[in-house]
């Protein structure tokens, strides 16, 4: 058994011309996990994509996606840059060395990387890390009818002890604007005293 590097995708080298590593390709059109994230968010509007990049959430999503891929891989395979590094099993290697019990495999007995990655919910990672301004929180999550929903949201976040993920300059005023993550906001709101009790009553109500 020798070590081998498997590129996330390589359109320049036909699959038939490469030795069969422990894994197959994730997607013939994909060049890296980071590009996969960019492809997924490209459907959003320009302002949203700009906010993702400006507040550092884009890099956070890419890191979490990479971590999820690494966590799903067998112990002897890891994602390094745009390559999966793992063992290559040649003719002289023992079959039992190729221990992929519990992992999806292809018709050649190698790790089915495409099937493995498909089980990772990238949309959930993106949604959980969606950046929210106080205005967003006030209108969408608190359903505030106030003339200043951002002020209502700021007071609520302060009471809950939830700190902003980061601060960025407002596009018009230039003043520092607090940015929160959707997953953090939802967890904090759902943990409010009495929230569980109200939810239970709503569930059992006829």
Task: Give the SSE layout.
Blueprint (H helix, E strand, L loop, with lengths): L1 E6 L25 H9 L4 H9 L2 H16 L5 E3 L2 E6 L24 H6 L3 H7 L2 E3 H8 L7 H12 L5 E4 L6 E6 H9 L4 H10 L2
Antiparallel strand pairs: 1-3, 2-3, 4-6, 5-6
SSE series = EHHHEEHHEHHEEHH
Shape: elongated
Largest sheet: 3 strands, antiparallel
Helix content: 40-55%
How many helices? The count is 9
What is the rounded distance between the termini? 64 Å
**Which residues form runs of ≥5 with pLDDT under 50?**
1-6, 9-24, 199-206
The percent range for strand residues is 5-15%
Mean pLDDT: 78
Characterise the protein shown here.
With 206 residues, this protein is α+β, with helices and mostly antiparallel strands. It contains nine helices and six strands, in the order βαααββααβααββαα. The chain has helices spanning 33-41, 46-54, 57-72, 113-118, 122-128, 134-141, 149-160, 182-190, 195-204; strands at residues 2-7, 78-80, 83-88, 131-133, 166-169, 176-181. Strands 1-3-2 form a three-stranded antiparallel β-sheet. A hairpin with a 2-residue loop joins β2 (78-80) and β3 (83-88). The radius of gyration is 23 Å and the shape is elongated.
Brief characterization of the structure:
With 206 residues, the chain is α+β, with helices and mostly antiparallel strands. Helices cover 42% and strands 14% of the residues. A hairpin with a 2-residue loop joins β2 and β3 (83-88).
